[in-house]
Amino acid sequence: MTSTSSLDTASASAGAVSVQPVAARAIGLRKVFGRTVAVDGIDLDVPAGSVLGMLGPNGSGKTTLIRMLLGLTQPTAGAAELLGHAVPEESALALPQVGALVEGPGFHPFLSGRENLRRTAATEPMLPNREIPAAVDAALERVGLADAADRRYRGYSLGMKQRLGLAAALLLPRRLVVLDEPTNGLDPAGTRDVRRIIAELHAGGATVIVSSHLLAEVEATCTHVAVLQAGTLVAAGELSTLLAAGAGGLVVATPDVELALRTLRSAGATAYRAERAPGEEEAVVVGDDGPPAPEVIAALVRAGVAVHEARRSRANLEELFARLTEEPS
């Protein structure tokens, strides 16, 4: 997966080209709503066959990025590709092979879950009419809605509505499945079902993009991760590589924390503000996924950052993900 900060090792320099087959690609994607920059120049490759977790707090730009990749939102700048086709220009060639649950499901309130799903199935160009009843039954069974299939949608709980939306995305085999906050409103059993379904899709060779602000869900289901904050991509790569990078780090004591973070992230390093006890000097932690320590120090000094101390330290993985999404003030 390529980003402005990382390749598969989470440390390649910007402009590197992925050699893996790509299921989805963002090329300098930017989206502005009035004076609000929702997505700010993101470059990202999603390797075919991967399970990519988009991790970030609410408002970080995850859903807007997904909508641009699917051709649902026109970008202000940049370009998107889906299964090798330009989006939105060639969306009709790619979307029949894509299942998506974005910003919650929308169905007719007075129809049953089964009837709603049959209407959705009738719009699928790759699903013959004669196969619709069996496909609907299989999808309902897969998401655990078989017993509630003939109840009206308006009587569904939030979790049941989410399950029906997931069923719509799974009506037929897909090359790519995109799930925006799929566990929203689900109880623990429903969350386990989503994990199981994602594992089945991955085992079957499909690419899955899962948007979430829950670190535990990303760790449980994903092979790759992209971390967003305030519309920018702050880290990306194979999950195992990124987690390994969080196992240790270089702690740099400096009063110029914001300048240090900008400098380090521009240099392709994973960096975040260090937690400090009262009376301790401010510092940043630099992951081992970027340039070696001497280059880190040299880059900081060239940028005018006052480096007071540098030492090795071990980082907590949960803290690593949380602080990756901390925007410099």
UniProtKB/TrEMBL annotation:
Signal peptide: none annotated. InterPro entries: AAA+_ATPase, ABC_transporter-like_ATP-bd, ABC_transporter-like_CS, P-loop_NTPase. Keywords: ATP-binding, Nucleotide-binding, Transport. The keyword Nucleotide-binding applies. One of its GO terms (molecular function) is ATP binding. Residues 24-255 form the ABC transporter domain. It holds the Pfam family ABC_tran. Belongs to the ABC transporter superfamily. This is ABC transporter ATP-binding protein. It comes from Pseudonocardia aurantiaca. The lineage of its organism: Bacteria, Bacillati, Actinomycetota, Actinomycetes, Pseudonocardiales.
